[in-house]
Amino acid sequence: MSGQVAKRLISVEEYHKMAEVGILKPDDRVELINGEIIAMSPVGSPHASSVKRITALFFNVLIDRDYKFPFYAASDVQECWVVDVENKVLEVYRELSKGKYQSKEIYKSGDVVKLSHFDFEVSVSKIVG
């Protein structure tokens, strides 16, 4: 008998349904990666300071694009947003096809961006400062 436990991975639809029925709360800091619900780091002053330092050192944008995007694409996530803290812009990737995002739009402070699949829009200034 092996020591491994069988996992049941979930789909994007199941993840969204968990939010709809209240299993996942709006303030839960989680994301779906490769079928697994992963806890995100808590937000706060120490966390924010660490993120800024790490971003400056390791260019978090590249990590998101190179590491996370393939998981998002494989999970059929249709739209990805990347906050480039250093350049104070929001990168929005859309039009998923053959495992890659075909469209990239860059928004700066003062712009308004709308989620393509939801009735939600936000000022980029509120995101990038």
Descriptive notes:
The protein is of the alpha+beta class. The protein contains 4 helices and 7 strands. The chain has 2 domains: 34 residues, no CATH class; 87 residues, no CATH class. Helix 2 packs across helix 3. The longest helix has 15 residues. The protein starts with 11 loop residues before the first helix and ends with a helix.
Describe this structure in a few short sentences.
This protein has 129 residues and is an alpha+beta fold.
* Tally of alpha and pi helices: 4
Q: Level of helix content? A: 25-40%
Oligomeric composition of the shown chains = single chain
The structural domain count equals 2
**Major beta sheet, strand line-up:** 3-4-5
Proportion in β-strands: 25-35%
Task: Write the H/E string, N to C.
Answer: HEEHHEEEEEH
Which value, in Å, is the CA radius of gyration? 16 Å
Care to count the β-strands? 7
Question: How is the biggest beta sheet arranged?
Answer: 3 strands, antiparallel
User: Low-confidence segments, ≥5 residues, pLDDT <50?
Assistant: none
Helix/strand layout:
Blueprint: H1 12-20, E1 30-33, E2 36-39, H2 45-58, H3 60-74, E3 80-84, E4 89-97, E5 100-108, E6 112-114, E7 121-123, H4 124-128
Antiparallel strand pairs: 1-2, 3-4, 4-5, 6-7
Helix pairs in contact: 2-3
